[in-house]
Amino acid sequence: PFWLPGRHFAMKRILVGIKRVVDYNVRVRVKPDGSGVVTDGVKMSINPFDEIALEEALRIKEKGGAEEVVVATIGPADTQQQLRTGLAMGADRALLVEHAGALEPLDVAKVFLKLIEKEQPFLVILGKQAIDDDNNQTGQMLAALWNRPQATFASKVELAGEQAKVTREVDAGLETLEVDLPAVVTTDLRLNEPRYVKLPEIMKAKKKPLETLPLASLGVSPRVRVTPVKYEPPPQRQKGVLVKTPQELVEALKKKGLVA
Amino acid sequence: MSKVLIVAEHDGKSLNPSTAKCVTCARSIPGAEITVAVFAQDAAAVAAQAAKLQSVARVLKVEHPANEHALAAVIAPQVVALAREYTHVLGPSTTFGKDVMPRVAALLDTAQVSDIMAVESATRFRRPIYAGNVLVTVDVDAGSKIVGTVRTASFEAAAEGGSATVDAAAVQVELPKHTRFVSVSAAKSDRPDLQTARRVISGGRALGSAENFKLLYSLADKLGAAVGASRAAVDAGYAPNDLQVGQTGKIIAPDLYIAIGISGAIQHLTGIKDARTIVAINKDAEAPIFEVADYGLVGDLFQIVPELEKLL
Ligand SMILES: Cc1cc2nc3c(=O)[nH]c(=O)nc-3n(C[C@H](O)[C@H](O)[C@H](O)COP(=O)(O)OP(=O)(O)OC[C@H]3O[C@@H](n4cnc5c(N)ncnc54)[C@H](O)[C@@H]3O)c2cc1C
Ligand SMILES: Nc1ncnc2c1ncn2[C@@H]1O[C@H](COP(=O)(O)O)[C@@H](O)[C@H]1O
Known about the structure:
The structure holds 2 protein chains of 2 kinds.
Chain A: E1 13-17, E2 20-22, E3 44-46, H1 48-62, E4 68-75, H2 80-89, E5 93-98, H3 105-119, E6 123-127, H4 138-146, E7 150-160, E8 163-170, E9 173-180, E10 183-187, H5 199-205, E11 210-214, E12 226-232, E13 241-243, H6 246-255
Parallel strand pairs in A: 1-4, 1-6, 4-5, 5-11, 6-10, 7-10
Antiparallel strand pairs in A: 2-3, 7-8, 8-9
Chain B: E1 2-7, H1 17-27, E2 32-40, H2 44-51, E3 56-63, H3 72-83, E4 88-92, H4 95-107, E5 112-116, E6 118-119, E7 124-129, E8 134-140, E9 146-150, E10 165-168, E11 179-185, E12 199-203, H5 210-223, E13 226-229, H6 231-235, E14 256-260, H7 266-269, E15 277-282, H8 289-292, E16 295-298, H9 301-311
Parallel strand pairs in B: 1-2, 1-4, 2-3, 3-10, 4-9, 5-9, 12-13, 12-14, 14-15, 15-16
Antiparallel strand pairs in B: 6-7, 7-8
Helix pairs in contact in B: 3-4, 5-9
The complex binds flavin-adenine dinucleotide (FAD) and adenosine monophosphate.
Adenosine monophosphate binds next to α1, β4, α3, β6 and α4 of chain A.
């Protein structure tokens, strides 16, 4: 149904979503007036799960399972930095859907659906969650809107013809699903270890195509369905005491009734 | 009045305790009337357990051979078919709920509020973001259906003693065949379940090997505790993935949490914020875990753990 003449159709393509987020090493702070989180001058990076998504796509391509890897992001113009990093890692092309404000997962999924129509990927790989809002929604929503399978929290992806076998990290242990392609996969931490980018790759990446699309050109009009009204730091735990010996520890725990 | 539909989590035989926590969350929505839906091949046993939870008014059994395994793509359209008369649709923030609920929300063209930790009104909720370093209070559009996942560590399980009516619900939707269950490998263990255990002993990178992790298992067995792990320990293969505690693993709220050879990265700490008492054993007195520990013991775990085992 999405086939449109003149679009990049024939090529076996993987679409990877990467979000620009506050680096995981930064301890974020709430603005004093509770209106948000301080992001000025804070280090920004590719969401760690999305690096894993891109790495997986690259490995599939390197094994001959795909011909092209396209990275896409929705964000402000600055997000080009993260796309360039993605290109330096090995992606072939990048798409920047420019949008300055916040965007809810449902709208991100709607944008990705438009990109799917345009790019016709046989596989879409997203991170399982963006570590800023910790939503863990976009991949599942995209799969729903696309009416295609989802294999979330993947720790292993094996492609075989028209199908993919995906091992998922679930509370009980590891679950394996078989899904028909095209499908959406979201990554968990143990899927792979992303490669480091080397300097020559960064230089080469500057020449790779990066297409900018204004959000409005895709026909998605974002809505605010969930309005943040207050940000606050979590209650701090009281710092406890240091005990000197295992005996002292056991006595303290016994006194509190925590061990028999 | 609010009508809340809870999607039950179960393994075909028993209701997962996460569902009883969703009930407690739902109960804090003013004027909530609570229905629990059980999607299963044969829902009778699980539905009977759900019907015993206090505050549950009604249990719906949705039985279908395709519901033998909880596949999000299969369950979501059935939830949507039931959702019409409800104001809220909730599921637990476990891997089950995280998989299914956003798919439900998208099919309903509505947003999801993930990891609800507190309910302030029928449309106002609090949730953690940035690995729990920030709490945000959000207002959801009153006009649309509210889909949410419940941060189970924030709520006590609803008690038994109720007697809800149990009905079979017929759901007329076409179910997709594009997703097939192959297998699940779950480590069999007689130890308490990590997510509900009263006591948890967790190990980190410092354990150094899967072999050394046995030190923790044996201490845990002495205490009747569950065993957990940091991401570093899981990545290194010292412990299986389902033991990971933290932002991207399990969020737990035991009475006693003993962190052994774990530095206390924010991603780990977010998983134990609700633990009543935290004990840290680490050879580095500067380790951040001591900032949150109620009791800290500085020293070599390979000396301390065997001694503890003898003392307990
Ligand atoms: C996106 C993302 C998500 C993440 N999610 C999670 C998550 O869910 N859960 C999680 O745990 N981490 C998570 N992490 C990883 C987290 O940032 C840390 O890297 C990890 O928690 C460190 O594990 P650790 O404390 O075991 O190892 P380390 O940080 O290496 O700490 C080991 C500790 O052991 C101590 N030690 C060493 N030898 C001994 C000894 N003989 N006796 C006593 N103490 C000793 C050391 O002093 C040190 O403090 C995530 C990271 C990212 C980027
Ligand atoms: N603005 C965005 N741009 C590109 N990808 C995104 C964006 N937001 C979310 N994603 C993708 O969706 C995944 C899950 O995000 P979330 O549902 O917000 O936790 C991320 O890991 C990304 O792969």
